[in-house]
Design brief:
Elements: H1 6-18, E1 24-27, H2 30-37, E2 45-49, E3 53-58, H3 62-68, E4 73-77, H4 83-94, E5 98-102, H5 108-117, E6 122-126, H6 129-135, H7 139-161, H8 169-182, E7 187-188, E8 193-196, E9 217-222, E10 224-225, E11 234-239, H9 245-263, H10 271-284, E12 296-298, E13 305-309, E14 322-325, E15 328-331, E16 335-338, E17 341-345, E18 350-352, H11 360-363
Helix pairs in contact: 4-5, 7-8, 9-10
The chain binds zinc ion (2 copies).
One zinc ion binds near residues 297, 324 and 326.
C-alpha cells in the first residue's frame, strides 16, 4: 500500500487555517509536523501558507529530511542562529501577515522569543487545527493501527503463556516489551502499566516489585508502536488466584459498562453520551465514585489524541475515528479493574479492532505446575 498523501493533508489544513483568520501557520508539535510531512525527527518546525511550505531545522537533520520529505523546501539553520530568528526570516520572506502558532505546542519562552524577533507579522494563537484533521484516520493509518494492535496482542499472548506466581510487575513488563519487539514493534506505545492488586488500583501506576502471587488480580495496560509511529492501547485484567465475590462483581460491572458503551458507538453519537452509558452502569453497580477518568480517547501517532470520550466532551463521532473504550473501577489499596479495547467508527456503526478475549472466564489464568 502506498504511503500517506502529505500534500492533501496540508491542503486540508490550509483550508482550515482560513477559518481562524490567519494566512500562515507555524507548526511546532512534533506529531503534527510528522503527520503533515513524514519527518520523524525532532527540533524541526513547519511553516505553512499558500505561498510557502518550509521545514525549519538544523544540520543534524539535513540528510534525514532529504530522505523523508523529498521535494519540501528546507531552511537549515546554523548552530549559532536561534530557531526564533530562523522563523522570523522565513515569515518575512514569505510575506505572512497573520502567523498562527500552536498554543498547545509552544512554550512561553519560545513564544516570547518569536514575539521579539518577528516584526513583519502578527502572532495569533491557534489550537487543535491539525489535531482535528488527525481525528479521522485514512486507510493507510488504519493499516498502521491494525499492525500496532497485532503486535500488542501477540505480545500479551507471550506474557500470558509464561505467567508465573513469582514474577514481578517489572519482569512482566520486560517480557511484554521484548515480545512486542519480536513481532515487529519499535517498542511499547507508552510505558506499560503492570499492576498486581493495589498497584492496579492506581489508574496510571508504574510496574514495580510486587509479585503476581500477592493478589489474585493483575492489571496490564499496554500497546505497541509500529515503525510508522502508530500505536495501540489495550487493558486486560488477569485472574491469577481465588477471588472474592466483590472482585467478580467489579469485573462483571466494568465489562457490562464497556460493552454497553461500545454498542452505542456510531457516527453522530455524542462522546459525552457514550461516556454516560458506561458511567450509568457503574453507578448502578454502586461504584460511581471509583470511576474517575473519562471513558476513552483517540490515538494514533500519539497515545492520547483528540477525540476525548468524557462527561464534558461535546465532540461527535465520525466514520474513521479510532477510539479506546476503557471504563474502570479502582478500589484504593485493594485492586483495580479496567477493560480497554480499540474501536473504529464505521459508516454502519463501529468495528472493535482488538480481539484479546475479555470475558471473565478468559481472564482466569491457570499456572502450570
Ligand atoms: Zn491504555
Ligand atoms: Zn487508553
Amino acid at each position: 500500500m502506498s504511503g500517506p498523501n502529505y500534500t492533501s493533508r496540508r491542503s486540508r489544513l490550509l483550508r482550515a487555517i482560513k477559518t481562524v483568520g490567519v494566512d500562515a501557520l507555524l507548526l511546532s508539535g512534533e506529531s503534527n509536523v510528522r503527520y503533515l510531512t513524514g519527518f520523524t525527527g525532532d527540533s524541526t518546525w513547519l511553516y505553512l501558507s499558500n505561498a510557502a511550505t518550509v521545514l525549519i531545522s538544523d544540520s543534524r537533520y539535513e540528510t534525514q529530511i532529504g530522505n523523508e520529505c523529498c521535494g519540501l523546501d528546507v531552511d537549515i539553520r546554523d548552530a549559532r542562529k536561534p530557531m526564533s530568528l530562523a522563523v522570523a526570516d522565513v515569515v518575512k520572506k514569505a510575506k505572512a501577515r497573520q502567523l498562527g502558532f500552536e498554543a498547545d505546542h509552544l512554550t512561553v519562552a519560545q513564544h516570547a522569543a518569536l514575539h521579539d524577533r518577528i516584526e513583519s507579522a502578527e502572532l495569533v494563537s491557534t489550537s487543535g487545527l491539525t489535531e482535528r484533521l488527525r481525528e479521522v484516520k485514512d486507510k493507510w493509518e488504519l493499516v498502521q493501527i491494525r499492525e500496532a494492535i497485532y503486535q500488542a496482542e501477540r505480545g500479551i499472548g507471550v506474557v500470558r503463556s509464561s505467567l508465573r506466581p513469582d514474577q514481578t510487575e517489572r519482569d512482566i513488563r520486560f517480557t511484554l516489551e521484548a515480545a512486542m519487539r519480536s513481532f515487529g514493534a519499535t517498542g511499547p506505545g507508552f510505558e506499560p502499566i503492570v499492576g498486581v492488586g493495589p498497584t492496579g488500583a492506581l489508574p496510571h501506576a508504574h510496574a514495580g516489585d510486587r509479585r503476581v502471587s500477592e493478589s489474585p488480580i493483575l492489571l496490564i495496560d499496554w500497546g505497541a508502536e509500529t515503525h510508522s509511529g502508530y500505536r495501540s492501547d489495550l487493558t486486560r485484567v488477569f485472574v491469577t488466584g481465588r477471588i472474592t465475590r466483590q472482585m467478580r462483581n467489579v469485573y462483571d460491572t466494568v465489562l457490562k459498562a464497556q460493552q454497553k458503551a461500545i454498542a452505542a458507538i456510531k457516527p453522530g453519537a455524542k462522546c459525552k453520551s457514550v461516556d454516560a452509558i458506561a458511567r450509568r452502569v457503574i453507578a448502578n453497580g454502586g461504584y460511581e465514585k471509583y470511576f474517575g477518568h473519562g471513558l476513552g480517547h483517540g490515538f494514533g501517532l500519539d497515545i492520547h489524541e483528540s477525540v476525548r470520550m468524557s462527561p464534558l466532551s461535546e465532540q461527535v463521532l465520525e466514520p474513521g475515528m479510532v477510539i479506546t473504550v476503557e471504563p474502570g473501577i479502582y478500589l484504593p489499596g485493594r485492586f483495580g479493574v479496567r477493560i480497554e479495547d480499540d474501536v473504529l467508527v464505521t459508516n454502519a456503526g463501529h468495528e472493535v479492532l482488538t480481539s484479546v478475549p475479555r470475558e471473565f472466564d478468559d481472564a482466569v489464568v491457570e499456572f502450570l505446575a
